[in-house]
């Protein structure tokens, strides 16, 4: 099943073409990465994918739903490259805040926080403020 489908998508900002038309799909279970120099349009592409920006041409669908679609926002996890975390809060406090936004609470929330801390190998640093972490993540 195509989870993400971007078809004939392009993006212009006034007269400047940032992305020439492209098409790709990402299937269920696939991990898809974008590589490119600064300014090549990676963030622009992701913003169109999640419905934060409107393509100049083409169509985007996530899980078969044409984007943008407000109902899809709570199903998509997007972490911007900056301002993504609260530096004065610890890793755990950040997770608690963001999982709360997704409506998680109680045992399920605690378990999920432990899981993701383990996943990124930060369990032992959970109580550290984000400002103390390396920038290389
Ligand atoms: N809102 C905007 N208005 C005008 N031009 C924009 C806008 N947003 C992005 N651009 C331009 O589009 C191009 C692609 O920017 P984008 O941020 O998508 O690149 P990027 O690949 O994410 O770069 P980086 O690796 O530095 O994060 C750049 O030339 C940028 O100046
Ligand atoms: Mg970017």
Characteristic key phrases:
single chain; 137 residues; alpha+beta; Rossmann fold; 2 domains; 3 helices; 4 strands; 23% strand; binds adenosine-5'-triphosphate; binds magnesium ion
Structure, described:
The relative contact order is 0.13. The chain folds into two domains: 2-75, P-loop containing nucleotide triphosphate hydrolases (Rossmann fold, 3-Layer(aba) Sandwich), CATH 3.40.50; 91-132, no CATH class. It has 137 residues and is of the alpha+beta class. The protein has helices spanning 42-50, 91-101, 106-119, and strands at residues 2-13, 16-27, 57-62, 65-66. The longest helix is centred in the C-terminal third of the chain and has 14 residues, at 106-119. 25% of the residues lie in helices and 23% in strands. Strand 1 (2-13) and strand 2 form a beta hairpin. The mean pLDDT is 92. The two termini are 30 Å apart. The chain contains three helices and four strands, in the order E-E-H-E-E-H-H. A four-stranded antiparallel beta sheet has the order 2-1-3-4, covered by helices on one side. It binds adenosine-5'-triphosphate (ATP) and magnesium ion (MG). Residues 42-43, 81 line the site of magnesium ion. Adenosine-5'-triphosphate binds next to helix 1.
Largest sheet: 4 strands, antiparallel
Give the DSSP E fraction (strand runs of 2 or more residues): 15-25%
Specify Rg, calculated over alpha carbons.
Answer: 17 Å
CATH topology of the largest domain: Rossmann fold
Unreliable residue stretches: none
Shape: globular
Q: Which architecture of the largest domain would the CATH scheme give at its second level?
A: 3-Layer(aba) Sandwich
Mean of all residue-level pLDDT scores? 92
């Amino acid at each position: 099943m195509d989870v993400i489908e971007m078809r004939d998508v392009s993006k212009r900002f006034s007269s400047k073409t940032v992305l020439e038309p492209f098409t790709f799909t990402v299937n269920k279970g696939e991990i898809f990465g974008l590589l490119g120099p600064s300014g090549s349009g990676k963030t622009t592409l992701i913003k169109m994918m999640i419905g934060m920006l409107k393509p100049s041409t083409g169509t985007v669908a996530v899980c078969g739903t044409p984007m943008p679609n407000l109902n899809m926002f709570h199903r998509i996890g997007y972490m911007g490259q900056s301002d993504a975390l609260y530096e004065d809060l610890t890793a755990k406090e950040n997770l608690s805040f963001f999982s709360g936004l997704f409506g998680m609470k109680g045992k399920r929330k605690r378990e999920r926080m432990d899981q993701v801390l383990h996943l990124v190998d930060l369990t032992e640093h959970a109580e550290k403020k984000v400002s103390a972490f390396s920038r290389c993540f």
